[in-house]
Design goal:
Chain lengths: 327, 327, 327, 327, 327, 327
């Protein structure tokens, strides 16, 4: 169990602490003014990251620990230029049973069980029994189901936290339920099936055991094609299953990125695929916008200043609500 | 007043009729097998278009009437190759007081007054008094208001019918009211102001007296910049008016096409501009999709066939609902 | 059985013939000089297309036959403006057992069995037993195998003829065997597996029963994703199968179009994927070039003239060999 | 008043000086070898930028001064690694009345009054009285006129100095007067009106009080649409004003960037708009070229070397004249 | 010699005429109402094009004459549907010595000798003796010189008439002389050398003996690379010639299209290359604009209407001067 | 002569050595903890690069030596943080006759004479005597021939080593000989001529005396146009030479980059140009892939990790062979 978190540092100034961290960075540096080397490290948990220094006897630590692993350390907290840091005397690899993943990773603000229950209630209400069977086959799958409830939605961008995928899917499902009635061309059960399964391939595209990363399969196949293959396997297991629904569901998954250059091998051709793709894109944009607004405010930007340039959107953003509230 | 409409032809086969039409096409052709020329015409009203022929004495008609004008004609209805046509004996220009525009142009399926009332009720409920004043200044403007209730939304594409602009705006406002609660970064009054005013420049970009067309100002300035200028004039007249709101409203108008290559001089930077642009684009896409689905069905396409290639979207579309209903 | 082919017309001038054709075009037209309508038709078989006219008693034929069907006709051959045509007195739908597909469709110049044998010999020589099992599972599949030996490679472009897919695959395999030794980074068995399976999805993307066309699944899923799903199913059936090989084979299929805008959801990342994509593209280009050179020559272009503009390559082409031979 | 300028440093080596600067950069750094922090600063005036260090007693200075403000400092000039720097003992904010903007900002090499007089003489010679009234209404406007004579033409790129906008406009007007006679399709008064007003929106898009920056309105509306609104307001005030001229002037302003992706909502359609856009682009390119040639020479590049890569033009540039002169 | 021109038809109604034409179109057509074929032809000379019909005895004419050749015809002028046409009784190929090219091709409005003299006067005034030698070597070349004075500047677009190349070059040289003084970075002799030689490759890229067309070398090498090779050959013949001037002249030629996608292998890097490319582009645009304005007016467009869509510029154009003159 | 190479450092730890190097980097730095400056240098030869420090008496060395020159140095080898470095006591410029280029530059793994012999044997076997004459005229040219055998193929990317151009050309020729038989449209002698000459312009585009760089002619004309000019000169000298071959060879050179945006003024139109361009591109890609795989392995990447992002190909790469070998 973890006794000390990064966020606890102020209460432990000058104290010696022992705790577990994810070793998120490590490099050898030369001491200023000569006289040899020291180890500069970054130690992370779900509450933040702490700079660490190890001035002596670090040869073993350096050769046995590596970035992305859990470590157990002992050291003294101090404050330097207004920031807390820790000077280590010991560091070793942590055994798997010594740590709990939950202590080290950012987690959704919403409990996974609650989100899962809310999502299931929506699925159970489907009128189309085949689509209901299909979606539940995913949610109840002993491997896919639990992974779906835990996986982040991305490595670094939107919803990059534990259960972020479920959080993103649920938000998308809810906004789609609100929008669908305005477009009578849309079959709502089909649309929601697409929404729930569109990113299901991320449970194999990403790994989140210690830190968040892409799997090799993720890099070489991608979550779109992984998901299409998963649907195909499930449909095989659910036979007889209407061929028309299979094609329409696969089409939504393949086309949901909306453009070839974003990795979709097909463009949205049906009302459901078009609506899903548009609202998924909007969710992603607002997710980025939230992150940028929070970042700008915490970086001390004033209400009448735009955010920094947002490369993924090729523009600066502006928090109109904050500006109007100021008046 | 107009006694005979294109749609009435079946009931008048072989009868001689007299009526008013919009002359939507006219050309001289050579008679097959030689022997001189005849006049081939297209006569339109709000119910459709009828092919017409004038075999003799057409010199006056040809030199005095021109495409896009109203004409009064006399002729006999006949059926040829399964289609009705009319053989004219007389045609002359119609005087302005002889015709009512409403008889000749496609019109929204929803009464303009009802749509106007629904929109006003939404505006009256704004919490922000300044935005309410601004929007009402447009709706109550003795020139802009009536034009806004009559204008089409386009020359040929989406909502190309009388009161199509109002219909488009009201649909957009309603879907935005449903979506806005999911995005707490959005100021709803500001968003709806943008939705109501984003296309207001079309009242000067388009002309719809007889047929629908672009004005010269529309071609050289465009509805985006026309609308921005109209807002600026109204704000001058409503002084004092909060400068911040003016900038945010102008920004929504300028950026609502979402991309530079679609004629927006700025990209959406605020939550309201981003949401408005996304949902406006979705409305346009579903409008196109509806038109294509109806066209494919009336052209005899089967449920398992895609539409023809849709150039504006660079793809074929597919009516999933019709296909599923068939099973 | 079919007694008379389009190419036989010169020997039958003025004779009355009876035969089967694919009805590749049909429309009603007005007789010149008035006096009613006639039926203008196009009748095709594997040797070409013949214009047909039906001047009387065509009501039944018109309402019961449709484009893309086989018909039985009776009529008289004549020559008009230097081209042969046929004036029909009878036309009715042909029953399935009256026609043989092979009479109506262009066919590869190489016998399918010989090509199949040549390909199998190459597969049997694979050193990698897993890849050999995988490829043979496709070739021996009771549904996929026969379809693979008959399918065209495209609707209208390269190798648009019966067994064109097999012809294209075999040609690609042979050139890859010649090139692979120059690139030692490449695993040859893996490369050839990719070459044999890269277009296997076309057996479901295309239909070729009467004429060549896209299936609905082909339009909405596409042969790339169809093929990826087929590999996934086969691998399930062949368990245990090395996961690494599965990923590398899927990657080759997904990336073989080489660019996102050509519908590949991934770009080639491995030596095999890169070489396959490049040589497949080269095969397609030379196939186009052959078609264009033949077309230009048969259209009477001289040796020092370029072909017409080739839209798919955005340029004119030039037959250097023909030009040099002329000197 | 300012006694000491950055460019005076060589004459004051080792002397203690007191002066005012614009604080263009400030950050806390750790002393090498440990032992606490120091303040690293950049002090600028119109003659250049001087690095400064403050080793002690900087807490007050750090908390009260901020980047972009004017400061009063005291310190000793020294030379370090061949460059002059200053070690500060005091720094405080300067009061508004202690400084003159002109001391701190780069200024056009041409006196604003002379440029203004030259421009006015050209306007006064207009044959078209309406266009003359329009342009003079801007030049004589008590707010716009003075701002137009002082504003820079950009934040960092071309003519980024006080009165740079006027300098750019005058240069453009003069070259247009030389070119116009070669294009008889062009109405010269109209062309020159466009040239004088095309960038007038920059007086609100930019701020130049201490340093040069974008205003929020500049970022969200942009100088093109700001200018269009300004013309519309002036035209309202000048009624009656010919509607045709208003449309043609607005069109030139809206289209002068020449491409959608450069933020022009319309492409140049008239001879005047086309010529204005082309020559404005050429002015910008030569302005960049001048800056790059000067930069390359001062960086010690030899005459047979190209400049560094110029990102805005996607190429290296080459000073042909300098190279030829060398021979 | 040619006695009758297309433009003379009104004065010869119903007369029988004999004359020479360029056979610009020929096709066999079926007579309306059946009864065999006739020959439909287009006959052109420098004054326009005349429709022709040959109803009988056309077998020889059809097999021996071909499009692009000169023919001698006899026939009767008549008026049909308001347009003149000619009914031929005889047509045969014309011998080379029977026709003069000048009778059949559009020609510049300016005499070639005058333009040549004006250009030479400018060259003779060069201060740089080497550049003067280089340019004169082209103008005095016994093959290149005469071709340069006769060649059109394009097949169909700008200056597509005899001596159009010289006309374009002279116009460009004159506007460059007016503009150059505003850009002191520019070496004027070097700039004018580039202007005179930039399109010199067109003398080999185009053929203009009967009609205007591309040569095979033109299609496969292009006028840019042809010109570069011509300069290289001339420089070899003029040794010693300064290497620096050779590189700078070649660079101007290679880069004058300004963009890679327009076939320039290099982008303009020197002041001269940049100015040449910009003004050459402007000349081309105004040339298109003149053609479009004239076309719109002769097609009966009103002053307040834009031209048709101009594909090469992706926009409609508008003749502002004509519109203003109307008021 | 050079006694000590960078790769010899381990055997000379703590010894004082004297040797020649290419000075590949030099900068003044401040000593840590204050106390003045020192000189930080990089010394290179064909075996690698060694970091050097000069703590005292470096004023002369600094002012007389410059990057890219050869230097003679004396100093002591030591090991610091696991890496060897050298502390200099002397450094001066080396005279030209003191060094041999071959000691300092990376060199092809294949002897130039052997590659040259292999290439010549292929040329001598040409059936086309004219193409044989043309190619030999280049290989036997007293200036071009030797340069072609020594030149690198690029400054930093593929085959950036001495004789890299010849190595690249020979590899391309060999793979083309293997591929050509599959494309009967191709004239093999013509194809190989294109392969041998396509990059011949690099002998003037690059300089490789000490380090590899672009010449000014290379930057302003480019190797494509330089090569085209060289062919034109050789053809002049070989008259009579078939014009058709000249055009086809020039076309291959001009089009071999395959796209306008890569600097080709023409796209490949002939079978030979198309095949050459495709296989040249493949060679370049595999060259990059080899470099990236080697780099990833030496950077400690594991077999299941992709390479870093490869900007020139816009993707990560993956060494499938290494991964499969690991199993």
């Amino acid at each position: 169990m973890k006794d000390f978190y990064v966020a606890d540092a102020p209460r432990f100034e000058n104290a010696v602490v022992t705790s577990f961290f994810c070793l998120s960075g490590m490099s050898l540096r030369e001491k200023k003014g000569g006289g040899g080397q020291y180890l500069a490290l970054s130690l992370s948990d779900k509450t933040g990251t702490l700079e660490a220094r190890m001035w002596e006897e670090f040869a073993d630590a350096f050769s046995t620990c590596s970035e992305g692993c859990y470590v157990k350390v002992q050291g003294q907290i101090s404050k330097y230029n207004g920031k807390f840091q820790i000077t280590l005397t010991k560091m070793r690899n942590a055994a798997e049973n010594e740590v709990e993943t939950a202590d080290f990773q950012p987690v959704s603000a919403f409990p996974a069980e609650e989100m899962d229950a809310e999502l299931r209630a929506i699925v159970v209400a489907f009128k189309d029994e085949d689509l209901k069977r299909l979606v539940l086959a995913f949610l109840d799958d002993p491997e896919i189901g639990p992974a779906f409830r835990v996986a982040p939605a991305a490595k670094v961008l939107h919803h990059a936290w534990i259960s972020g995928l479920l959080e993103h899917v649920l938000a998308l499902v809810k906004v789609l339920k609100a929008v669908a009635p305005f477009y009578p061309e849309v079959n709502e059960d089909l649309l929601l099936t697409g929404a729930i399964l569109h990113d299901i391939g991320k449970v194999k595209e990403l790994s989140w055991k210690t830190n968040f990363n892409y799997t090799l399969e993720g890099q070489m196949i991608g979550h779109i094609s992984i998901a299409q293959g998963m649907v195909r396997e499930k449909v095989l297991a659910l036979q007889p299953f209407p061929e028309r629904l299979r094609i329409l569901v696969e089409h939504m998954i393949l086309s949901h990125h909306g453009k070839y250059e974003f990795g979709s091998p097909k463009l949205p051709m049906t009302p459901e695929a078009m609506l899903l793709s548009a609202m998924d894109d909007l969710e992603a944009k607002f997710s980025a916008l939230r992150r940028e607004f929070a970042g700008a405010e915490s970086a001390g930007k004033k209400a009448n200043e735009t955010t920094e340039w947002v490369r993924s959107m090729d523009r600066n953003l502006f928090d109109s609500k904050r500006w109007l509230a100021e008046e």
